[in-house]
Each structure stands twice: as C-alpha cells, then as structure tokens.
TrEMBL record:
<protein>
    <recommendedName>
        <fullName>HTH luxR-type domain-containing protein</fullName>
    </recommendedName>
</protein>
<dbReference type="GO" id="GO:0006355">
    <property type="term" value="P:regulation of DNA-templated transcription"/>
</dbReference>
<dbReference type="Pfam" id="PF00196">
    <property type="entry name" value="GerE"/>
</dbReference>
<dbReference type="GO" id="GO:0003677">
    <property type="term" value="F:DNA binding"/>
</dbReference>
<dbReference type="InterPro" id="IPR036388">
    <property type="entry name" value="WH-like_DNA-bd_sf"/>
</dbReference>
<feature type="domain" description="HTH luxR-type">
    <location>
        <begin position="305"/>
        <end position="370"/>
    </location>
</feature>
<dbReference type="InterPro" id="IPR016032">
    <property type="entry name" value="Sig_transdc_resp-reg_C-effctor"/>
</dbReference>
<dbReference type="InterPro" id="IPR000792">
    <property type="entry name" value="Tscrpt_reg_LuxR_C"/>
</dbReference>
Amino acid sequence: MSDAYQDKLLLSLIQAIYETVLLPSAWDRIVADLTKLARAESGAILGFEGLDNKKISLAVKGVQRSALLDVDTLSALDDATLAMGLGAIATLPVTLANSAPWSSALRRCFGEDGKLLVLLVSKEGSRRIFVACFFPHAADNHLAIAAETLMKVLPHFQTAFALQKAMVNEREKSTRTERALRSCATSSAIVTADLRVKFANRRFGRFVDASGSFIEFSDEGLEFQDEELQSEVEDLIEQARVNKHDHHLRWAKSKRTGVSWIVSVDFLSFGSDTYRFGNVFSSNEPSFLLTIRELSRNTLLTPDDIKTVFGLTPTEAALVHSLANGDAPSDIAKRRGVSKNTVHNQLASAMGRLGVRRQAQLLSSLAVLSFFTK
C-alpha cells in the first residue's frame, strides 16, 4: 500500500468517523476502512456496559457478529480490557500457548493463531467503547505500524463520541423544555428576531384569540395592531439578543385603548442546524421565549393571593387587584365612593410595602406573581 493511498484512506476514515454523528450506519464503513488501513484480517468496534446484549453496540468486518456477541467472547474481552485506561492500546496474544482464561474464547471468535490489538476509545463509568483488530501470524513491526495507525484516529473517535453525547443531552433537554412549554400556565411562544413563531403553547393561542384585534398569529408570524405593544416586544427582543443571560420584563400600555400588558422575553440558546431531531430547537437561528399577559384579563390572581404574598391590608390588596385588571385609579375611586387622593394614598402605601416607586414596577411584580398562580 503506497503512502499516498494510505493517507487518502486515513482521511476517508476520519471523515467517516465524523459522519457517524449524524449517520450511525456509517460505523460499518468505518470498520471496513479501519481494518484495511491497519492491514488487519478482521476488526470490530464494540461498545458495552456489562454483558447485557441490550446495552451492546457493535460493528464488525471479517468476523461473525454472533461469535463476537457470544457471552464467553464478551466476557473474555471484558476481562482483558478491564484494567485499561482511556486511550490505552493492548496486544492480546490469541494463541494455543496462551493460558489466560480469555484466550480460548477469543480464538473461537477471531482465529487460532494471531494477535488482537485493542484500543480503548471511551470509558465512562461501566460503559466502554473500544476498537479491536485481529492479525494472524503478524510480525512485531507490522503490529507496531498498526498500533500507530490506531493512535492516529483515536482523537477523532473521541471527538465524535463527545459530539454524540452532547447531541443526546441537547435533544433530551430540548424535548423536556418543549414538553414544559406545552403545559405551561403562561401564554408563551418561541419566536425569532423577526417575530416568526417556531412554537406556541395552547395558552398563547387562547390569549391571541381573546385579544381581539391587538395581535394576529399566522404562518408569517406575529402581527401587532397596537404600536406600543409591538415597540415594547421588539425592544425587549433586541435587549435579550444583546444581554443573553438576563430576564427582560416590561409593562406596556396602549395609548389608544388603555389596555395594559406584561411582556417578558428570554434568549434561548438551544440547538444547531446539525441536530436532526424534530422539535422547535432544530435550528441555530437565535430564538426567544416571548410571554405576554393582558392585565385587563388577569383572572388568575385574587386579592387574597396579593394580600398573603405581599403583606398588604385587605383594602390595599383589593386596590392593587383592581389595578392589575386594568382599572384606572379614578375609576376605582368612583366605584368605591372615595376621593382620588384616598386611592392614591392607599396605592402609595401598598407600593411602599412592596419597595417599589412606580406603578409599572408594581404591575410587573404582580405579573411575576401571576405566573406562579394556577
């Protein structure tokens, strides 16, 4: 085998290793290329955690899968590699003269006279993944070249396995997050910077339906008919894009109708366009968690909730509850038959207890509380 062909085959093998991140069936090609590159008669990539066949992954070339999956063979490989460290390579003599307990089982699998090179690629707890190549009647210099070849591909194997593990973790995290969003008690949606909706939970759909003409939700994305609300949402998304780790929450009010909303936006850093699983995070495009609640429709909070959590008097709690549902102080004063000054004094007292100075801060605190109220 010429050096140029050897180098070409090595590059092909490395490429195939990284392809396995997206295409697990490529392992058969990897084993074929690896045995050819190492000039081995047969080879295998084996991953197992204990000797339970349900936890074993295997790709082979030149050897029967059933023979390698035999419990005696697996036990022999387990015993022979148990003490190996990560990245270690061992030469196992598979000969009649070898009296080691594992030797006879390996002879039945690979052949009567030869040597088995074993490279431990990954080791995490009781889970091990290793590459094995069998060489019948091999000279020592041939084995040295084969071992050098295996070591060249070791870092690429380890990178591929690390990527696979990261993908699995990301997939599980994304799935859990998506499931949580579906059942979330708040009206939330995953949106892009240009307000295209990647996912919206049932509450968000009901919120849009109940909002009248303020918000429209279509395949093209969200369309806001109220300039104040649209401006606040766009500004919060931009803030979240710049300050990714902060939670952004704001009170918005329509100048045209007086309707108020609490809007929150969080940056989401899930996904990559190489992750092939079907959920809302399967894109590396920046995404944001948008939550909107119309205060005039806030039916979750009760005066008792507000009184208990914030330590207000019953009168202050009732006043704050009315504000949270969109009533103006003048309307509250008229309904109660008291002066506006009385309402403003009670409001100032309630805000003092909460440690806020502005009405918008008070409503923001109530919106956060309502997120936890079912």
